[in-house]
Amino acid sequence: MSAIINVSNLSKQYRELKAVNNISFTVNAGDIYGFLGQNGAGKSTTIRMLLTLIEPTAGNIELFGKNLYSHRKEILRQIGAVIEKPDLYKYLTAYENLSLFAKMSGATVTEKKLNDQLEQVGLSKRAHSKVKTFSQGMKQRLGIAIALIHDPQLIILDEPTNGLDPQGIADIRNLILHLSRHQGKTILVSSHLLHEIELIANRMLIIDKGEKVMEGTVAELVDPANTIVHLEVTNAREMMAWLQNSRWKAGLQAQEQNKNVILLRMNKAQVPELTTELVNAGANIMSLQPQNSLESYFLSLTTENRHVDTFTN
Q1: What CATH number is given for 224-305 in this structure?
Q2: Cα separation of 88 and 304, whole Å?
């Protein structure tokens, strides 16, 4: 499988702030590649470097097998992007906006092509409505239509569901899936909405404070063999002592500060055995929740949410 994006040891320094610190990742042809991180993690900075909007301090970027800076114009013709909220002319109609941006991009398009593009993003019935009357979700879909008008191979979307209601989020999600499955587009989408990325991405990168912490497939990152169990008991001190001398010791992760919650990592299939042994050991269980969602995994990796008092084996 050919690599569309190949980033090596990329960094961006702003005086004392290292916004991106030595990250490397690869996006393959046909991927819906999720780029995950909390606000301020370095996602938008990385994307701006991919689009040559800012220069990296160090590192190398190749797109379509070519160096980004020595083949800039050639490469950017093959990319469509929406960075945060799209810049639109609110007193023009959707059709007029799309036509104008098509001319600016140098694309030769027919009236049918423009109408087909608006149909694809679900705006054909509002083609001749002024953009000032659009919801934020409609503006986002029009922005994506503009990004697609020159038929790019790679689409980059930076937080495309920011500020949208549930229906708007679902519309963008379905559009991304359509572009991947039916048009064969390669898509890099950044977000802090973990559940949405879990629904659409086949591969993803997690960054935290500018540093790469994990890259892999969704299946790898939410592997049931690495389930985190949140155990809440009223006799936490007693049960922690018991666990440290039991066969479950290797899976002990932490006891949350000022709470009666103990965290264990294990295969999800072992949870019934753990429950039985805890009851027999006298645990006063208030709740026992296995979690192996992407959100649980993400929160276990990012520094702002790491649990304290981690136990070592």
Answers
A1: 3.30.70.980
A2: 36
